[in-house]
Each structure stands twice: as structure tokens, then as C-alpha cells.
Design brief:
This protein is mainly beta. The protein is built from six helices and 35 strands. Helix content is 7%, strand content 39%. The longest helix is centred in the middle third of the chain and has 11 residues. Belongs to the carotenoid oxygenase family.
Length: 487
């Protein structure tokens, strides 16, 4: 008698697993822990990303349209407690009806497609002015209770000037010296512009500038120095014909290298006139940090060698999906290679580049946030050990020595690494890296903790969840230990 061997998942099926929805909301103490939890690492890690990739019968085209889900890891030095909870947005509370379109997914009804895309609150979660906020850059923040993870409604700042859309970027920046927060909102209609905001420690929001965008350029992030908000505006613009045909901003975005340039925009924090400097076209997504060096301004980010992969992904989104796997079009077959770079902008408008790393597929750059607005020496990032699949490793780049160390998780999907200092006055890089990793073979996720200075030595501790977490975006760590109600 011949034994029947169960079919093993194909490589494509494994790479599709990060896009599998997690409909359940859990709340439990993590029991499956390898290694030893650092006793001094106490506080709460919050992560956010898409959790559910369907609204009723509508399969969402990309992670940008999926309902935001908060994942929380409570660390008390002895144990890990996990909770996940969906942000109660209008789309989530609408149940099986997609009443308004997404960034990439059309709604079933014409009326829904004529409305502004749904605020899915799935991009970043930040601790700001005493509140925990879930962010989505096309609309207002959602307030989250850090203890219960209940959604407390949308955020309306005192003296609110967020524009008619309420757009508030998913990447606010902090000045560690003044306690101020800076952010922007992207307005596309009727006049494309970046509204630039300062939020003081009491939570009062003031618009300090408005930067005209001339040509509807899309921008996701910025950096902060002691004197400026620094924007790197690449020639990524919507094709109006495609926009009218598909009614999808994401599908319409094109990298227009032939008739475009990258503009470095320095917006003074004191409200005076911005400086805009033209440069040859480049392509990036996230900015790491920036600082002033005398009269020069220096900004760091990952510059991609070839942006065409994102255009190709947009084409795959527009094409019909595999009927046997509606998420077949969500996976990326080849990540773009990139270099960690620093650009120096002189008072005279001269721009020079310094390359800090070899070319490799990597993204989600991070650093010690206490070094914000100052020069930092270490950058961490998620990376891919091959050109295929997902980001599946973590890298540490030391700018002082030019060395790079890495830990490879194998067949996995690895999220953005967050640095947590050992103490408030610890030296830069003296602390831990916290990474949420999805093992694609076991289809389970884990919180992985590294000694930030000894990344290549492997994890100090791995706290395995009972289930997977869908692919995510960003997060934050608070020193307060959340105190949820007893289960």
C-alpha cells in the first residue's frame, strides 16, 4: 500500500501567505518563547498594517486598501502579552459593504467610486502629545486607547487646519530637544500642495507653510532638521488619462524620468519662504534622518536603482488575477536594489551624494530616534537576501566603519526593525532591535529581539505567536507598560 504524502505548498503559495487575512482578534500571554527575554526591556510595542484583504465579496487589490489592524506586544521583563485589534474605521464598521473606493480598488457602486478613498488607518501608529494615533496619509488620524485598543474616533486638533481632506501624513517627525512634532498633509485638489504643520507639546497644531507642488507629485515622507522640514520630491506623478480610465491614483502613478526631476525642498520651521533645488531624477520611498552641518543640509534615505518594478507591480494590479488565488497579483517577484545614501545640499544650491552601502534590496530604514535632527552613525533596515520573494532579513549599517552586518530569517517576511535604547542616556546603538517576522513555512509570526550591536549573532529571544500576522508597515515603542483589562 502506497502512503499518500500531502501536497506541499508551492513557493508562490508560501509567498502569498503574508497577504492572508487575520479576521480573529486575540488577547493572550505568549507561551512559546525561545531564549531569554531581556529583563531591562520593558514597555509596549505597537505595530500596524493591513489585516483583512476583503470587504464582503470584494477582494482588495493591494495592502493600501485593507483594514488597519493594531498588534500590541506588552513586555514586562518576564513575559510577553499579545493583543490585536482592528481600527474601527468607517470601512471596517460597514461590514460586507464597500461604500467608498480604495486607493487601488474600485467600489461595487458608482456612488462609492465617486467618493474620496476610504481612510483605512493602516499605515503607522504613533505616540504623540499623550495620545496613540493610527495614521493614514489621506485623512485624519484615528485615536486609539493604548490599554483597551478601542478606537476613540478621529483626531481633531485644537485650532485644526488640516485642510478639507484632513490629510495628515503617516510619518510625523519629532524634535527631541523641543518636544515639537512636525508633519504635513498632501492636498491634490483643487491646488496640489503640501500643508506643513507644527504641533507643540500641548497638542496645538499650527500650519507653518504651504508648498505648491506644481505638477501633482506624490510624496510619502520627509525628514526634520533643527531648521527645516526636508522633502525629496521625485517625479512620481499620476497619468491623467490612466486616472480617468481606472479612477485609481495608485495605478495612475508613473515615474516620469524623461520630463521630470527630483526637487529637494527645504521648508523653514520658522515659516519663512521655502527653498527648492532641482536635481536629476532619483527614486525613493522612506527618508531616514536629516541634520544641519554648518550652512549645509544633509538628508539620508534609500535610493532605488530602478523604479520600474513599482510600475510593473501597478500593471499586475490592473491585470486580472489568478482565479484560483485572488491574491496572486499582490506578490512582488523582484525587489528593487537600493543604496543607502546621504545627500548634501549647500547654501549655494549644489547637491552631492555619498553612498553608504552596497546595492541590495532593502527598505524601511530606521535609526535611534533620539538622534533625530542630528547626525546618526547607525542605520537599520529590512532587506531581502535574494531578489525574489519578500524582505526576509535585517541589516545594520555602521557609517563610521562602513561595515554591514545582517541576520537572514530564510523563507520569511520580515518587517521594519525598531531600535529601543537600553536606557534614556544609553549610547547610540546600545539597546535592542525589535522585529516582527513571519515564518512562511510554519505560517506563524513572532516577535524577535536582537542585541542591536550584535545583530549577526542572532536573536536573544523569539516569542512565537499562535498564528500569523499579515504583512505590516510601521510601529512605535512606548516605555509605559500597557495595562489591559483582565480577560
Amino acid at each position: 500500500m502506497t502512503a499518500i504524502v500531502p501536497d506541499q505548498p508551492s513557493l508562490h503559495e508560501l509567498h502569498s501567505r503574508p497577504f492572508a487575512s487575520l479576521r480573529e482578534e486575540y488577547d493572550y500571554r505568549v507561551e512559546d518563547i525561545e531564549g531569554a527575554l531581556p529583563a531591562a526591556l520593558t514597555g509596549t510595542l505597537f505595530r500596524i498594517g493591513p489585516g483583512k484583504f476583503e470587504v464582503g465579496d470584494t477582494v482588495l487589490k493591494t495592502m493600501f486598501d485593507a483594514d488597519g489592524m493594531v498588534s500590541r506586544f506588552i513586555l514586562d521583563g518576564k513575559s510577553v502579552h499579545f493583543t490585536n485589534r482592528y481600527v474601527r474605521t468607517e470601512q471596517y464598521l460597514g461590514g460586507d459593504t464597500m461604500s467608498r473606493r480604495g486607493i487601488t480598488t474600485n467600489a461595487p457602486s458608482l456612488r462609492g467610486n465617486l467618493r474620496w478613498p476610504a481612510n483605512t488607518a493602516n499605515t503607522n501608529i504613533v505616540s504623540m502629545c499623550g495620545e496613540l494615533l493610527a495614521l493614514w496619509e489621506g485623512g485624519r488620524p484615528h485615536r486609539i486607547d493604548p490599554e483597551s485598543l478601542d478606537t476613540l474616533g478621529t483626531k481633531h486638533f485644537d485650532g485644526d487646519r488640516l485642510g478639507y481632506l484632513g490629510a495628515f501624513s503617516a510619518h510625523p517627525k519629532w524634535d527631541p530637544r523641543t518636544g515639537e512634532v512636525y508633519n504635513f498633509g498632501l492636498d491634490l485638489f483643487p491646488t496640489p500642495r503640501l500643508r506643513c504643520y507644527r504641533i507643540d507639546p500641548s497638542g496645538r497644531c499650527t500650519q507653518i507653510n504651504s508648498l505648491g507642488l506644481w505638477d501633482m507629485v506624490w510624496n510619502h515622507d520627509f525628514a526634520l532638521t533643527e531648521r527645516h522640514m526636508v522633502f525629496v520630491l521625485d517625479p512620481l506623478r499620476p497619468n491623467i488619462r490612466t486616472l480617468l480610465r481606472t479612477r485609481s491614483l495608485e495605478r495612475a502613478l508613473e515615474y516620469q524620468v524623461r520630463n521630470g526631476s527630483t526637487r529637494f525642498a527645504l521648508v523653514p520651521r520658522d515659516g519663512s519662504a521655502p527653498r527648492v533645488i532641482e536635481h536629476d531624477p532619483i527614486f525613493h520611498i522612506h527618508v531616514t534622518n536629516a541634520y544641519e552641518d554648518g550652512t549645509d543640509t544633509v538628508v539620508e534615505f534609500i535610493r532605488f536603482e530602478d523604479p520600474q518594478v513599482f510600475i510593473q507591480l501597478g500593471e499586475r494590479i490592473e491585470a486580472p488575477g489568478d482565479s484560483a488565488d485572488p491574491r496572486a497579483h499582490l506578490t512582488i517577484d523582484e525587489w528593487p536594489r537600493g543604496h543607502l545614501v546621504r545627500y548634501r545640499i549647500t547654501k549655494s544650491g549644489r547637491i552631492t551624494e555619498t553612498v553608504l552601502s552596497d546595492g541590495a534590496p532593502m527598505e524601511f530604514p530606521q535609526y535611534d530616534w533620539r538622534r533625530s535632527t542630528s547626525e546618526h552613525s547607525i542605520t537599520y533596515a529590512a532587506a531581502a537576501s535574494s531578489d525574489l520573494g519578500h524582505y526576509n532579513s535585517v541589516v545594520r549599517i555602521d557609517h563610521r566603519t562602513g561595515t554591514r552586518s545582517e541576520f537572514d530569517f530564510g523563507l520569511a517576511q520580515t518587517g521594519e526593525p525598531l531600535f529601543v535604547p537600553r536606557s534614556a542616556d544609553a549610547a547610540e546603538d546600545d539597546g535592542w532591535l525589535l522585529v516582527v517576522n513571519h515564518d512562511l513555512v510554519t505560517h506563524r509570526s513572532a516577535l524577535v529581539i536582537f542585541d542591536a550591536r550584535r545583530l549577526a549573532d542572532g536573536p536573544l529571544c523569539t516569542a512565537h505567536l499562535k498564528h500569523h500576522l499579515p504583512i505590516g508597515f510601521h510601529g512605535t515603542f512606548r516605555r509605559q507598560i500597557a495595562q489591559p483589562a483582565p480577560v
